[in-house]
Design goal:
The protein is mostly helical. Helices cover 59% and strands 5% of the residues. The chain is built from nine helices and four strands; from the N terminus they run ββββααααααααα. The longest helix has 33 residues, at 215-247. It is elongated, with a radius of gyration of 22 Å. It starts with 7 loop residues before the first strand and ends with a helix. This is Plasma membrane ammonium transporter. Belongs to the acetate uptake transporter (AceTr) (TC 2.A.96) family. The chain crosses the membrane at residues 62-85, 91-112, 124-144, 164-181, 188-207, 227-245.
């Protein structure tokens, strides 16, 4: 049971009691959460919401992280060829079930709770795994139009690999755009998006090398991209653990590199932000 300090009065006249758990304050009507703690648990700036869905529903952010991390760990390890691993057909479920199912569930509930940025993140990674997973299904024979007598499958063709390389370049720019906005949340989350952007571009380079017939170079770039994504998965587990520990009320002070204090406060209405900008 938490211990409480002496009551204090906030600037708006509401009596507030400090809670032992960092970032929580009890008022006469309920429990308020500091912007710093909110951003640590939900990975989005605290903004005013209509309704109380954040109190009524469980935090879905960790669920989406679990799907993302398990898929990313598996994908990165296979890319690096640990234990002689090659090909994704045996673990194609990570592209259609483990990752997308949990990410889509999390996305829907982030939307219900009004958490804009996590909703965007969950949706982004869900469609990435679904679309990239299509490339790993040999039964679809997506490379068949590029088949030749020398390459009956078409998987080694210049055109096929170039198309995938361009596709990953586009994904890299999309992920880098998200990285810019994560700089408003915390350093760990920002590093995840920076590295996953670089990973997409490195894997794109692997497909470009394959299109040029340099399969040794392609293999090296694939391992490098896998290594970047492995670090991404480690950081993802770290964030997931912190969120779960916070929700389970386990007292931990693991750093995430809070960046929100570098930006103007967001727990105000948009109209107030607009008025402040006009005054400035």
């Amino acid at each position: 049971m938490s211990t409480q300090s002496e009551p204090a009065t906030s600037s708006n006249g509401v009596r507030v009691v400090g809670d032992e758990e960092k970032g929580l304050h009890r008022t006469q009507t309920g429990v308020t959460m500091s912007p710093e703690l909110f951003e640590k648990l939900y990975l989005t700036p605290k903004v005013p919401h209509v309704g109380d869905n954040n109190r009524r529903f469980a935090n879905p952010t960790a669920l989406g992280f679990v799907g993302f991390v398990i898929s990313t760990f598996t994908f990165s390890i296979v890319c690096m060829g640990w234990g002689g691993a090659s090909g994704f057909s045996p673990v194609v479920g990570i592209f259609f079930f483990v990752g997308p199912v949990l990410l889509l569930f999390a996305m829907v509930f982030e939307w219900i709770m009004g958490n804009f940025f996590p909703m965007m993140v969950m949706g982004l990674f869900a469609v990435f795994w679904l679309s990239f997973g299509m490339l790993q299904l040999p039964t679809l024979q997506l490379a068949a139009p590029y088949a030749t007598d020398a390459d009956p499958t078409g998987l080694a063709s210049r055109e096929y690999n170039t198309v995938i390389a361009l596709y990953l370049i586009v994904w890299g720019f999309a992920l880098f755009t998200f990285f810019i906005f994560t700089c408003k949340i915390n350093a760990v989350f920002a590093t995840i998006f920076l590295l996953v952007s670089l990973g997409a571009w490195v894997l794109s380079g692997a497909y470009f090398r394959a299109s040029a017939g340099d399969f040794d170079g392609a293999g090296k770039l694939q391992k490098a991209g896998g290594a970047l994504l492995f670090i991404v998965a480690l950081l993802g587990w770290y964030m997931c653990f912190i969120i779960m520990a916070g929700e389970m009320r386990i007292t931990l002070s693991l750093p995430v590199g809070d960046l929100s204090h570098l930006w103007p406060k967001t727990d105000v209405e948009l109209a107030a932000v607009e008025q402040r900008e006009h005054r400035d």
